[in-house]
Design a protein that fits this description.
about 250 residues; alpha/beta; Rossmann fold; binds nicotinamide-adenine-dinucleotide
Length: about 250
């Protein structure tokens, strides 16, 4: 690559969770292209992925010890692993809530607890939230977990700021991955209707922001939350009102 396009993460050691497929795999690839030494991890076996169950304190402790031994420092963490559970208010069980929160909230917490001690000033953490964290999304366990992750991100930004460690959250809208493919077709269609850009997103529309937030280009940005959702959460539910009026002549 020419000097006009310097690699933005050269020399940085970055851990990505849930990197066996979907957004995590794309993030790991993009970070590697920018020169990072990426440790791609997942609970599922996959080529190039080290096994790590984000809910396991033991797994995180082992990873942290390995990274300390191998590199001495870690400069980035992408808390990307996540699961959904689409039970609605009347049906969701406490154990569903616990299971989803274990991956989506406890996982990122453990990652931060184990890796932040290895992070020098200038390091960065990116948590992958969801448009569900900004709205009254219908799957209760998923929505509450992603709202909780926002709280964790804010608290971590506050606590780690004095050490020069930044923490930001990316909120994807509907991105075509196995997670969204497992929903009913009506879910995809309704998302497209509610999205001002009129389409779904792809994984490589998330990765540039993740690269930016891990790089020194965002050195004064922390505690923020950025939706990457084609405008879904920006209109606060009024798109259908606007669209209905447009079909009746515009006013
Ligand atoms: N796809 C979307 O539309 C969308 C929208 C908003 C937010 N998100 C979020 O983006 C992130 C990535 O989602 P995706 O769409 O790529 O989903 P995905 O289901 O394709 O990939 C998720 C990955 O996380 C891994 N994982 C699950 N449990 C784990 C655990 N306990 N430990 C380690 N890894 C685990 C899975 O094995 C899988 O590889 C998730 O946090 C998800 O909630 C996705």
């Amino acid at each position: 690559m020419s000097d006009l396009h310097p690699k933005r993460l050269l020399g940085k050691v970055v851990v990505v969770t849930g990197a066996a497929r979907g957004q995590g795999a794309a993030e790991a690839e993009a970070l590697t292209r920018e020169g990072a030494r990426v440790i791609a991890t997942d609970v599922e076996a996959a080529d190039g992925c080290r096994r790590l169950d984000v809910t396991s304190d033991k797994d995180w402790a082992a990873l942290a010890a390995e990274l300390k031994e191998a590199y001495g420092q870690v400069h980035g963490l992408v808390n990307n692993a996540g699961i959904t559970w689409r039970a609605r208010l009347g049906d969701v069980r406490p154990e569903d809530l616990d299971r989803v929160h274990a991956v989506n909230v406890t996982g990122p917490l453990l990652g931060i607890q184990h890796l932040a001690p290895l992070m020098p000033p200038g390091s960065a953490i990116v948590n992958i939230g969801s448009s569900a964290a900004l709205t009254a999304h219908y799957p209760v366990a998923y929505t509450t977990s992603k709202w909780a992750l926002r709280g964790l991100s804010k608290t971590a930004a506050l606590e780690l700021g004095p050490r020069g460690i930044r923490v930001n959250t990316v909120h994807p809208g509907y991105i075509d991955t196995e997670m969204t493919a497992s929903a009913a077709p009506a879910f995809r269609e309704a998302n497209i209707r509610e999205t001002p850009l009129g389409r779904t997103g792809i994984v490589d529309e998330i990765t540039p922001l993740v690269v930016f937030l891990l790089s020194d280009d965002s050195s004064f940005i922390t505690g923020t939350e950025i939706p990457v959702d084609g405008g879904l959460t920006a209109h606060g539910g009024v798109k259908s009102i606007s669209d209905a009026l447009l079909t009746e002549g515009g006013r």
